[in-house]
Amino acid sequence: MRNRKKNQKKLQLQVDPNELIAKQSARTTFKLSEKTSNLLKVAAKHLGIKQKTLLDQLLEDKKALNILADDAITYARNDHKCRPKTMVLSQKALDQIETVSSYREIPRDYLVELSVARLASYFNSSAKTHEKRGLLMEELDRHNSQLIDLFNRNERMLHKDDAFWVRFKTLTEITHKQVEKIRKTFKDKSEFEY
Prior knowledge:
By secondary structure, the chain is mainly alpha-helical. The protein folds into two domains: about 25-120; about 130-190. Helix content is about 70%, strand content about 10%. A two-stranded antiparallel sheet has the order 1-2. Helix 5 packs parallel to helix 6 (about 90-105), helix 5 crosses helix 7 (about 110-155) and helix 7 (about 110-155) packs antiparallel against helix 8.
């Protein structure tokens, strides 16, 4: 019984060299449009993850790569507007894209560009939500200003110890603080531009 547990433990602790190689990083250069490079950079920043991690997740999805390979057959772009961009990927992502590219006879640059383009719909949806937040923020600012104006105009109306006045002052201060806290979570419009 003891030997069996020891053997199981040894098996669990064994290192699989293929797994280690797949996790190894590799540098490679792709020719990508500026829009694609910007989308990758902005999406990674917005999601709070590294570009490498985001690109690995997009390129390690074999099903998606094969679907994109079908689209890549008819994909056209202006290669003169593309610039070389050196990127770091996992060996697994690089192998995956090389395999699909070679098997389907499609430039790997196209597959990378189409993979990154998958982020656009999510990102455009987030930008629309952000726009709605912007309108709401403007309205909050208006109401906050009205409350502060009301407070300032009527500051001498009631005695400072009056229970109503104390609560009104507290409401004004808390509202102002909360609006400022909300503003800190509100991203700049430029974070959604690519």
